[in-house]
Amino acid sequence: MGIKRHLFLYNTISVLVALVAMLAVSSIATHFIADNYQHQSISQVSRESSQAQTLLQGEAIRLHDWPELNRQLQEIGFSLQVSLENKPIFSSLNPAQSRFYREAGAHTQWDQSSPLIVQNPAGTMVGVKQDGYTVVSLSQPPTRLFLGTPRQPGEIAVLSMLISGAAAIVVIVLFSLLFTSWQVKKLLKPVDALAQAARRVEEGDFSQPVDYGGRNEFSAVCTAFNHMQEHLLAEQEKTAAYERARTDLVAGISHDLRTPLTSVKGYIKGLRDGVANTPEKQGRYLDIAYQKSCEMDVLLQRLFYFSKLETGNLPMFLQPGDLGDFVRRFASEAAMELEQTGRALETHIFPSSHPVQLDQEQFFRVLNNLKDNALRYAQADPLCLTLTVWRQGNMECVRFADNGQGVSAESLPHLFEQFWREDQARSSKNGEGSGLGLYIVKCIVEAHGGTVRAYYDKGLVFDIALPRQESEPT
After folding, report:
1. 124: DSSP letter
2. Dihedral class, residue 129 (left if φ above 0, else alpha if ψ from -120 to 50, else beta)
3. In this structure, are 409 and 462 located in the same domain?
4. How far is the C-alpha of 321 from the C-alpha of 325, rounded, in Å?
5. Would residue 348 be called left, alpha or beta, if left means φ above 0 and alpha means ψ between -120 and 50 degrees?
6. Nearest Cα to 19, choosing from 155, 156, 175?
7. Which of residues 308, 329, 350 is at a domain's end?
8. Which of 282, 308, 334 is the endpoint of a domain?
9. What's the predicted TM-score (pTM) here?
10. How does pLDDT run across 77-116, given as a tens digit for each residue?
11. pLDDT score of 386
12. Helix, strand, or coil here: 214?
């Protein structure tokens, strides 16, 4: 559930709970106040009526001592009205009590042998008749309510609403604090997890992902953070491997340059010291020194080419061309070199056009690197190279195969890695290599939009596939 839904749900629950609490408290308060009012009113009326009745039957009425009787009645909240033959002779009633007496008591008939008791919301009236006197005591309306404070029914409703409102406020505050605390704790959980992960990343630790199982907006953030960590970890490992490769490159270049450089120095020194004392010997020394210099130049050219590949400064000029024609031209040039050393090159080009987009200079380097790789590592006698061109779907394919010993199955996945060589010991019997030739092949082929793969089939085989051009060149 999203954060917005959580907040809406919790706020709604808080309001509903507060309303239910307010209704419950209001109902309880109303019933309590009403019951208390009724109970206390009944009790108080009964008590006061009993006291007034006792006074009206006491000594003061027999002595007709009306002031004393009035004093005693006023102590319990009653006033006195005395009439003789229906004519008032003593009265301490206030206007409200007089109105109550006129409306309720004056017209009430009762037996002289029993006292009169009249009760209604306006007050209580207790009266007796004795010796022609009509003696009536009236309470102060309205009757007292709990806590000694007079209350009308309307005031009871207001009081109950005030109590329920106060209770609702307390409930709302409590639930708001509770839900807010719970929400903050839940919201801060992914934030804390992200903060801890950020500190780990700052310290260089990318291995521990953010462990958050929620399904809100933070879930996507934590997932993105984990992907970032994985990417950083992969880049860190790639950088470390690249640095190791560069270190190996420096060591390898030092080794690869040292051997021909030592030969060049040795033969030049032989010429300078007069060791080559005949024209034939001098010519041979110069030829060997030149050959070793060319080997160093090839190595340096590959390093320079690799630098351009890495920095993206290698220009590619793709132009329409026929892959079959290009392979024929390459084979005719390479065959002359191979034949001088007893090696052979065969071509099998399927009879049809093979239109592609080619940078002929760069693709020549691809085939030349594959040829050099075979000459260096195939170890076949006699060595026979085969170039095959055919169409497969919307791709034009060229296969470069030799009849050599190939490489181990463990080495095949690493053939196109930069600076990698199966002969890590750089054994001189296989010649010298920089570990860049096949990496350059892969980069150039992919720059053409194609793919290259290597496998063993009675020798090491490289299959290159280039996108077929939609319109054939004219």
Report:
1. E
2. beta
3. yes
4. 8
5. beta
6. 175
7. 308
8. 308
9. 0.48
10. 888 888 887 788 888 888 877 777 777 655 566 666 667 7
11. 93
12. coil
